[in-house]
């Protein structure tokens, strides 16, 4: 009998995922465009139920029907090229799973094209990096229900398990919903990473705390409300020494952040559908600004800033702890608000409770607070904004003063904290009964007769400003 699934693409993620599938006992075919990688994989991880294929024809021949083909190739053209090459070899009912970070619109375009041939495409976000892929990622599948049902036993076996034993995978609905959820996951990932980096910057530049001492701070934070994968790895990173120089590794890494686009897509999408995600957008902007290293070095000698005023490290640690937790809550609130809008905007049918459920383990943004997010949506599925859930409303009320102090200290010392500050502005904007948009409306009406509504009567008005 044949293989139950094939993994095509044996890069870091593909190879780790294939090993995970093999470890769970599913008969598997592996394929890579360059045969040497297939040979290397078989040599290292070969087993009686794992077979190599050296052409797409061979992949297709080795698979049970309906065929399940998991593409682990870079998003963009490589996915189209692979689908184009496979399509003539496949039969109606066969299933392609795209496990990369494809844009949801690409997924929907490919689903429509493949549907004409009766082939099903499951757009599947996979999070957790190499370790996650190997030992249990969070899996975010979207596409035809029949395709999901056919791969569910494999996905449930290889996925991360939440503390209550639930596999971190669920059917998220039709179309590109799986890749959409993964895109927003990455937007939240960008915001939390940047907020952590801002705390590191403050503790370094204002608190004068060396990385090793900061590592202990993050490690302690990781034992309470901030417990999360990103805080945990930060503690680890800050304790790591570069063997070549003996210096903390963070101090020898160039301060230019790269990006592959998923954070930017989240912001672009949010602008398109009119959902405010300033924390995510500021994180993308911060990466862009970091890229101007040469310009920044030149500007550092020319543009004035305040002289640094070292702050009490204990006070700073206490304040930044609160600010980071607040910023994390706001990042999730914004991401969830975008996911919620996509339900009406794109007709997606996932619910936010399920999304929080499958993010609890395996993925990069896994965090203790996801359990509370899940509870919030269990209690109130129609919650207008996560900030309004009693648990977060109270958490923010307790921390809003120290959150403001953190922004104060940063501004006073000229240390940029775009995500922590934007999160606070979002919080203050969202809780403002009255915003100065009345003046914006007046300006629009003044220069363009764009009209306005009034607080005291129904209708649309234009004022004769002349
Ligand atoms: C994950 C990550 C993963 C990858 C991102 C990073 O969930 O496992 O998000 O998908 O690390 O592509 O994106 P950047 O390269 O844009 O930082």
From TrEMBL:
Its EC number is 1.1.1.44. Residues 178-466 form the 6-phosphogluconate dehydrogenase C-terminal domain. InterPro entries: 6-PGluconate_DH-like_C_sf, 6PGD_dom2, 6PGDH_C, 6PGDH_Gnd/GntZ, 6PGDH_NADP-bd, NAD(P)-bd_dom_sf, Pgluconate_DH. Pathway: Carbohydrate degradation; pentose phosphate pathway; D-ribulose 5-phosphate from D-glucose 6-phosphate (oxidative stage): step 3/3. Gene3D superfamilies: 6-Phosphogluconate Dehydrogenase, domain 3, N-(1-d-carboxylethyl)-l-norvaline Dehydrogenase, domain 2, NAD(P)-binding Rossmann-like Domain. GO terms for molecular function: NADP binding; phosphogluconate dehydrogenase (decarboxylating) activity. GO terms for biological process: D-gluconate metabolic process; pentose-phosphate shunt. Substrate binds at residues 101, 127-129, 185-186, 190, 260, 287, 444, 450. The active site is at residues 182, 189. It holds the Pfam family NAD_binding_2. Keywords: Gluconate utilization, NADP, Oxidoreductase, Pentose shunt. It catalyses: 6-phospho-D-gluconate + NADP(+) = D-ribulose 5-phosphate + CO2 + NADPH. Catalyzes the oxidative decarboxylation of 6-phosphogluconate to ribulose 5-phosphate and CO(2), with concomitant reduction of NADP to NADPH. Homodimer. Belongs to the 6-phosphogluconate dehydrogenase family. This is 6-phosphogluconate dehydrogenase, decarboxylating. It comes from Ardenticatena maritima.
């Amino acid at each position: 009998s044949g293989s139950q699934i094939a993994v095509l693409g044996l890069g870091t993620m593909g190879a780790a995922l294939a090993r995970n599938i093999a470890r769970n006992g599913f008969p598997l075919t592996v394929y890579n465009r360059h045969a040497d990688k297939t040979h290397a994989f078989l040599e290292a991880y070969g087993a009686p139920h794992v077979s190599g294929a050296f052409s797409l024809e061979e992949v297709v021949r080795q698979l049970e029907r309906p065929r399940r083909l998991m593409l682990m190739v870079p998003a963009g053209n490589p996915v189209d090229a692979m689908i184009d090459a496979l399509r003539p070899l496949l039969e109606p009912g066969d299933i392609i799973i795209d496990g990369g970070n494809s844009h949801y619109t690409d997924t929907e375009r490919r689903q429509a094209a493949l549907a004409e041939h009766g082939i099903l495409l499951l757009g599947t976000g996979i999070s957790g990096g190499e370790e996650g892929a190997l030992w249990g990622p969070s899996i975010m599948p979207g596409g035809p229900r029949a395709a999901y049902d056919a791969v569910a036993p494999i996905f449930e076996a290889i996925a991360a398990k939440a503390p209550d034993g639930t596999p971190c995978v669920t059917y998220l609905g039709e179309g590109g919903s799986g890749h959409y959820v993964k895109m927003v996951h990455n937007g939240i990932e960008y915001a939390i990473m940047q907020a952590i980096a801002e705390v590191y910057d403050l503790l370094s530049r204002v608190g004068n705390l060396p990385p090793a001492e900061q590592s202990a701070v993050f490690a302690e934070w990781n034992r309470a409300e901030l417990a999360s994968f990103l805080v945990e790895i930060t503690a680890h990173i800050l304790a790591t020494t570069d063997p070549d120089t003996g210096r903390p590794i963070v101090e020898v890494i160039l301060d230019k952040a790269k990006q592959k686009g998923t954070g930017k897509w989240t912001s672009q999408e949010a602008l398109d559908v009119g959902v405010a995600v300033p924390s995510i957008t500021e994180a993308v902007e911060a990466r862009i600004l970091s890229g101007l290293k040469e310009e920044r070095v030149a500007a550092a000698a020319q543009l004035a800033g305040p002289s640094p005023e070292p702050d009490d490290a204990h006070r700073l640690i206490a304040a930044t702890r609160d600010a980071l937790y607040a910023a994390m809550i706001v990042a999730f609130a914004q991401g969830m608000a975008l996911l919620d809008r996509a339900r009406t905007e794109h007709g997606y049918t996932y619910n936010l409770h399920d999304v929080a459920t499958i993010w609890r383990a395996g993925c990069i943004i896994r965090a203790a607070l996801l359990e509370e997010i899940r509870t919030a949506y269990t209690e109130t599925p129609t919650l207008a904004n996560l900030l309004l859930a009693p648990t977060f409303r109270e958490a923010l009320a307790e921390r809003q003063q120290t959150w403001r102090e953190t922004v104060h200290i940063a501004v006073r010392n000229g240390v940029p904290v775009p995500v922590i500050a934007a999160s606070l502005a979002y919080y203050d904007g969202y809780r403002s009964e009255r915003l100065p948009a009345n003046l914006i409306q007046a300006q629009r009406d003044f220069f363009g007769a764009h009209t306005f509504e009034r607080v005291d009567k129904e209708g649309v008005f234009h004022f004769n400003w002349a």
